[in-house]
Amino acid sequence: MSAPSLQLDPNERVHVLGLGSIGTFMAYCLTDVPSRPCTTLMLHRPALYDAFKKNNEKISITTTKQTQEHGRFNAEGSNAEGFDAEGFDAEVLDNDGSWRRTTRQQSTTEQTNPHWENTTNEPIRQLVVATKTIHTVGALKPLQSRLTPETTILFMQNGMGIVEEVNRSLFTDPVSRPKYLLGVISHGVGRDAPFRITHTGFAAASVGPSSSRPEEQGSDYLLRTLPQSPLLNATAYSYEDVLQMQLEKLIVNSYCNPVCALHDSKNGILLGETHRKLKLELFAEVVQIIHRMPELQGVEGLKNRFGMERLEATVDGILEKTRNTTCSMVWDLRAKRETEIAFINGYWVKKGIELGVDTPVNNMLVHRIQEIQSSWRA
Hints:
Elements: E1 8-17, H1 21-30, E2 36-43, H2 46-54, E3 59-64, E4 80-85, E5 89-93, E6 99-102, H3 108-112, E7 119-120, E8 124-129, H4 136-140, E9 147-156, H5 162-169, E10 179-185, E11 188-193, E12 196-201, E13 205-209, H6 221-225, E14 234-236, H7 239-263, H8 276-292, H9 302-305, H10 308-321, H11 328-334, H12 345-355, H13 360-377
Parallel strand pairs: 1-2, 1-8, 2-5, 3-12, 8-9, 9-10, 13-14
Antiparallel strand pairs: 3-4, 5-6, 6-7, 10-13, 11-12
GO molecular function: 2-dehydropantoate 2-reductase activity; NADP binding
Organism: Aplosporella prunicola CBS 121167
Protein name: 2-dehydropantoate 2-reductase
């Protein structure tokens, strides 16, 4: 079933890089916007275009009864329903390192040919990045020449510290680098297959600039546009506010991901007294770091928001609701994939060094996860 179509705005285009569950969901939500932008899916290998064609060049979303109440869905009385969004363009990273564009205006014959003649190097103005943090630099590198000071990049990812890593690796000159936005998303989304997702839980998204400095803030197009999607349920915030939301989510992930991964368990093992001492020691480290962060000095209510009692109550509440959930780092270790530990607990280690805070618990968790990863290469 197709969701009702909305008017296309030919003057605006958003590129989406990283088409896992969140990136695919973000692309779908862009079709949920009145006067929707043209949307280009960035496919990092030709085989993904084959999968895109197999899905009839659509993104398919399965909703639950709860999530049907939001967005442009018409289903009534069913527990689950499928909807399709169409009208996407695609660019494919070919084996020679060039991006090849296919548009909906091309013929079927051209679109089935994996070697298009229409190579593109056009600048990108709006880019949503939803890759795993550890793959971000590698995913952006083939696009580097197309990312200019007029480009705005929205990072919708777990972990923190990616802006610093991207600048260090790709955009060392502050004058020529893109502008950045940060995003936090709490929707439940699962990837069933390429371009097919299930929306398991309606929640919210938060977006905001990555800096409080006016000269480092670019176009506000995404900040204005994303909140217009009923399904995404996004709100635009100031830098200080979205930073605090990122930190809150990172605290949960810093406890949940490595501890569950080391025990190969669901979130429920973190409830109760078994791991409480570790939890409180970890919280004590991150609270000291947050209270010393220069960018948050003078923010009203900071010490209360990031106080030990409030943090424990918040994290335990989240864990209670997700006790049967298996977090991403568990799946990564099971599949012998590199984890995002460097951008989760590793972020606290780096910040601790910068701000003079000892982080023995975060250090230990990083070391133990990295030790497991190293054993695969031994």
